[in-house]
Amino acid sequence: MYESWDYRHQAPGAHRPLIALPNVLPDLAAAMKTNPTMRVLVLGGYYDVSTPYFEGRFELRHLPMPASLEKNIEYRYYESGHMVYVNVPTLKKLHDDVAAFIQGGAGSGK
Questions:
Q1: What's the rounded Cα separation, in Å, for the pair 2 and 41?
Q2: 72 to each of 33, 49, 87, 106, how far by Cα in Å?
Q3: Residue 13: pLDDT above 50?
Q4: What's the CA gap between 19 and 67, in Å, rounded?
Q5: pLDDT value, residue 68
């Protein structure tokens, strides 16, 4: 099943496809430059060993885009690992944060 997956991805501005796990951060930066009103919500667990807490912040703070667009990225972290949703109280908080973000009232969670 996994043998048929094609991980090649050609990021905007790249000269050739990358053959590895895809890095779509250049695509996100291109999308945010194209649409400067685009908002992004990053959710994660403090104890996530698959996507470590500070790695996401570090990568997003180094996107190839104007610094003025960083205000469009919000962060929410939870007392959990990778699967934030398995703890019911944490799931409720995640739900409320996503709903507030969609409704435009999440505020700055940087």
A1: 29
A2: 11, 26, 28, 11
A3: yes
A4: 29
A5: 96
Residue 76's φ and ψ, nearest 5 degrees, are -135, 130
Reference 65, options 92, 107, 36; nearest CA is 36
Residue 63: what pLDDT? 94
Phi, psi of 81 (to 5 degrees): -95, -145
Q: Do residues 31 and 11 lie in contact, with contact meaning Cβ atoms separated by under 8 Å? A: no
Q: How far apart are the C-alpha atoms of 67 and 88, rounded to whole Å?
A: 36
Q: How far is CA 49 from CA 42, 52, 59, 62, in A?
A: 16, 5, 16, 21
Beta strands per DSSP E along the chain: 8-9, 18-19, 40-45, 73-78
pLDDT, one tens digit per residue, over 30-85 is 999 999 999 999 999 999 988 888 888 899 999 999 999 999 999 999 999 989 98
* Structure tokens belonging to residue 2: 């996994």
- Other beta carbons within 10 angstroms of residue 6's beta carbon come to 8
The tokens of 18 are what? Answer: 């990358």
